[in-house]
């Protein structure tokens, strides 16, 4: 782990001229860093597409009655918004982009275990996205089932469900292969001296995530194939008219799709841990507790799917057990939050933009987490089930949690990935705007839900008008701030190697190499003789 | 980049590729696991209909296919041992035998399905729709699960085909045996799934 002298630098992975040039040097590259950027750009593209759809939905809800679209268009819009945001942005999430970029570097390797498989996963991702897109624009119109494809409606609707479901199946395959690649990489490619308990905590969270991807995704894969078979071959797995059981569909769907929430949030928590440790300028508090809590979340998260189905028809015993297990998830999640706080305690905190983003994450994630307990207990869930309360909770966790962590990670690792620094002042203003806009958009939905406004309708009763108007205005603030944040990142300026190699004083391996890294990351594979967050003694 | 990358992919870790294969096999088991759950639930709901429908299936042809797959699993295991011992010719013969057995399995399957379809038993057929719900589900599951299994046979066949040609041109050899070993593992998985499908559909009465 020698420091870098600026006189002797290899060309970075961005400059490197290989066999291919132009676009082919990207889409045929097996370099994990270029693949990570392919994911990053595609994900941000889909995020912006989903954002525009969300804005249109909020615009429709600005006042009671029909504003800009009718019920069918609204149903299609919230379905496609969900498909895009969930399957194309946040399930690949931080793992596909930042995980791909950082895993080999943080464990001291030159690449992932299977570089070609890694590129293949990205192609599957794009193929799945194209299939879904074709499904939206062809046949009898975009699906209107919601992203959950609940049977039997998904078997009966005339819209183009088959292609969307099949696209989601292909995306699942991509996710499985990414998880597989990461597990093998973490097991086999760690630098000499880096035991499992010397890995950075981001890697631990990705390790837990990879196991969920691997073990949960096949179940939804086969479920989606059964829906396709039901529609094309008329089998009737989930069609009550032919003996099928729609509740069974819900079970199989949530066996994956609840753990999928942890696929989204675990890497986010890992990135937040890295940020807090770096900017607190202390070693992490409770390393093993944080590492194990990632695995605990991954494990318990498997056993709670039934809390999506409290009103779908389950025995009282099953409901109570699922409710109890759901409360258990709060324990490892809280362990993380408490350890983050303890890490900051008596730290010499440096208030840089990524740290503020991490703070926003904790604040919003706590609201999301605590309202989750309201949904997790059977009696209160029955009251707010299928209302705007659920929409608010879900967005606090997935957008306010995983989404904001995505941008936190982007601000944290941006200098490392591109060798450029953005304008920190604008980054902070962007965050403030986003924070205000986010809460203005989604906080009213909690109240609307409690007052009884159901979700997934293009229209509502007059008494909900004021809060909905507030929410819509909030969505404009949020979108403007996001635009500001992204433009600010795009306008980042190149800095000198001394400024960019380690601008935050990070201690994990990625900060010991050049920014942007060279093709093979390390000239020499480092030998690890210290804990991941140990402060330099000199 | 390519220059250095050739060097990089040359970094050859047989343990990693085997670990990767095992993980992939987990996912395949879970894929079929979802179907086994569905099967169990519907069998529990419609025990009599499942019992009667199962008697329509031809145990003999199922048994023959079971034996064929078991033998093919043996030949693929033997081909790996043969290559470990450096006997390339025997490896190729055994791999070829495995492939042939797989084809025989598929041909049997074709005739078995053909007979069912000839008797107007297939998903969505007029006749099947006139039967009970349990019958519809049984035959739906039968076609879906054995069909998915047949797709896995074809995938395994392709994988072993690649291994065959790589053994032939020498790029898979005694010292770099991973591809063949992983192909063999996959083939055992395909065999194993059939070992569960056979009693579930043909034998339980």
Describe what you observe in this structure.
The complex is a heterodimer of chains A (538) and B (205). Helix content of chain A is 66%, strand content 1%. Chain A has a two-stranded antiparallel ribbon. Mean pLDDT of chain A is 93; it is low at 1-6. Chain A has helices at 24-27, 32-60, 71-90, 93-106, 115-137, 153-156, 161-188, 201-233, 246-280, 287-300, 316-344, 353-376, 378-384, 388-418, 424-451, 465-490, 497-501, and strands at 420-421, 493-494. Chain A has one domain (24-512): Cytochrome c oxidase-like, subunit I domain (Cytochrome C Oxidase, Chain A), CATH 1.20.210. The two termini of chain A are 15 Å apart. In chain A, helix 12 (353-376) runs parallel beside helix 15 (424-451). Chain A contains 17 helices and two strands. Chain A is an all-alpha fold. Chain B has a single domain, classed as Up-down Bundle (Four Helix Bundle (Hemerythrin (Met), subunit A)). Chain B contains eight helices and no strands. Chain B has helices at residues 2-10, 14-45, 47-54, 59-84, 88-118, 126-130, 133-169, 178-203. In chain B, helix 4 (59-84) runs antiparallel to helix 5 (88-118). Chain B is elongated. Chain B starts with a helix and ends with a helix. Chains A and B meet through helix 5, helix 7 and helix 8 of A and helix 1, helix 2 and helix 7 of B.
How many separate structural domains of chain B?
1
Main CATH class of chain B: Mainly Alpha
Radius of gyration of chain A: 23 Å
Label the CATH architecture of chain B: Up-down Bundle
H/E element sequence of chain B: HHHHHHHH
Domains of chain A (count)? 1
| Spatial separation of the terminal alpha carbons of chain B | 62 Å
Please state the oligomeric state of the protein chains shown: heterodimer
Helical coverage of chain B, percent range: over 70%
Principal-axis shape of chain B equals: elongated
CATH-defined fold name of chain A: Cytochrome C Oxidase, Chain A
Q: What overall geometry of chain A do the principal axes of the alpha carbons give?
A: globular
Q: State which percent range the strand residues of chain B make up.
A: under 5%
Q: Mean of the pLDDT scores of chain A?
A: 93
Considering DSSP H and I runs of 4 or more, what fraction of the residues of chain A is helical? 55-70%
């Amino acid at each position: 782990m020698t420091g870098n002298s600026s006189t002797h630098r290899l060309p970075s992975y961005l400059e490197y001229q290989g066999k291919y040039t132009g676009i082919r040097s990207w889409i045929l590259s097996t370099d994990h860093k270029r693949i990570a950027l392919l994911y990053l750009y595609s994900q941000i593209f889909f995020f912006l597409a989903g954002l525009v759809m969300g804005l249109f939905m909020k615009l429709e809800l600005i006042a009671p009655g029909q504003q800009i679209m009718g019920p069918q268009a609204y149903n299609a819009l919230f379905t496609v918004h969900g498909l895009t945001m969930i399957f194309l942005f946040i399930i690949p999430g931080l793992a596909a982009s930042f995980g791909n970029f950082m895993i080999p570097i943080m464990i001291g390797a030159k690449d992932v275990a299977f570089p070609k498989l890694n590129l293949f996963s990205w192609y599957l991702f794009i193929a799945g996205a194209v299939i879904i897109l074709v499904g939206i624009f062809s046949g009898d119109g975009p699906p209107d089932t919601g992203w959950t494809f609940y049977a039997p409606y998904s078997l009966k609707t005339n819209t183009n469900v088959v292609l969307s479901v099949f696209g989601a199946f292909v995306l699942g395959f991509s996710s499985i292969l990414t998880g597989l690649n990461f597990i093998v990489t973490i097991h086999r490619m760690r630098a000499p001296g880096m035991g499992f308990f010397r890995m950075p905590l981001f890697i631990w969270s990705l390790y837990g995530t990879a196991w969920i991807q691997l073990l949960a995704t096949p179940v939804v894969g086969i479920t989606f194939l059964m829906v396709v078979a039901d529609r094309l071959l008329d089998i009737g797995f989930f069609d009550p008219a032919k003996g099928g059981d729609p509740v069974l569909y819900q079970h199989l769907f949530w066996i994956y799709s609840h753990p999928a929430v942890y696929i989204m949030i675990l890497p986010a928590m890992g990135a937040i841990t890295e940020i807090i440790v770096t900017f607190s300028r202390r070693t992490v508090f409770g390393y093993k507790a944080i590492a194990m809590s990632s695995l605990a979340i991954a494990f318990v998260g498997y056993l709670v799917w039934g809390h999506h189905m409290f009103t779908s028809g389950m025995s009282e015993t099953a409901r109570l057990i699922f409710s109890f297990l759901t409360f258990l998830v709060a324990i490892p999640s809280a362990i993380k939050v408490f350890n983050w706080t303890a890490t900051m305690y008596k730290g010499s905190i440096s208030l840089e933009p990524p740290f503020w983003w991490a703070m926003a994450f904790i604040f919003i994630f706590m609201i999301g987490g605590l309202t989750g307990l309201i949904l997790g207990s059977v009696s209160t869930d029955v009251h707010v089930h299928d209302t705007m309360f659920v929409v608010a909770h879900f967005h606090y966790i997935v957008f306010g949690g995983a989404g904001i962590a995505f941008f936190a990670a982007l601000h944290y690792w941006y200098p490392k990935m591109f060798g450029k620094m953005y304008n920190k002042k604008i980054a902070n203003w962007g965050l403030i705007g986003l924070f205000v806009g986010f809460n203005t958009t989604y906080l009213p939905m909690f109240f609307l839900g409690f007052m009884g406004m159901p979700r997934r309708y293009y229209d509502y009763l007059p008494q909900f008008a004021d809060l909905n108007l507030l929410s819509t205005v909030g969505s404009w603030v949020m979108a403007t701030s996001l635009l500001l944040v992204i433009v600010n990142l795009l306008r980042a300026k190149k800095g000198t190697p001394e400024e960019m190699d380690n601008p935050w004083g990070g201690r994990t391996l990625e900060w010991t190499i050049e920014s942007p890294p060279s093709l093979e990351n390390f000239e020499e594979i480092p030998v690890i003789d210290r804990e991941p967050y140990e402060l330099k003694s000199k | 980049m390519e220059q250095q990358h050739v060097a990089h992919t040359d970094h050859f870790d047989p343990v990693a590729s085997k670990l990767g294969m095992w993980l992939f096999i987990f996912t395949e088991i879970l894929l079929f696991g979802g179907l086994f759950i569905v099967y169990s639930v519907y069998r529990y709901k419609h025990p009599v209909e499942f019992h009667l429908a199962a008697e329509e299936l031809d145990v003999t042809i199922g048994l023959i296919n079971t034996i064929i797959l078991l033998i093919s699993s043996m030949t693929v295991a033997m081909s790996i041992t043969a290559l470990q011992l450096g006997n390339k010719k025997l490896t190729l013969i055994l791999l070829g035998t495995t492939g042939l057995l797989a084809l025989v399995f598929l041909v049997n399957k074709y005739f078995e399905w053909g007979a069912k379809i000839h008797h107007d038993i297939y998903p969505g057929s007029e006749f099947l729709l006139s039967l009970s719900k349990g019958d519809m589900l049984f035959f739906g599951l039968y076609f879906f699960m054995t069909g998915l299994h047949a797709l896995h046979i074809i995938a395994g066949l392709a994988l072993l085909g690649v291994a065959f040609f790589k053994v032939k041109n020498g790029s898979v050899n005694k010292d770099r045996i991973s591809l063949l070993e992983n192909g063999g593992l996959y083939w055992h998985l395909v065999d194993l799934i059939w070992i569960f499908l056979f009693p579930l559909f043909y034998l339980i009465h």
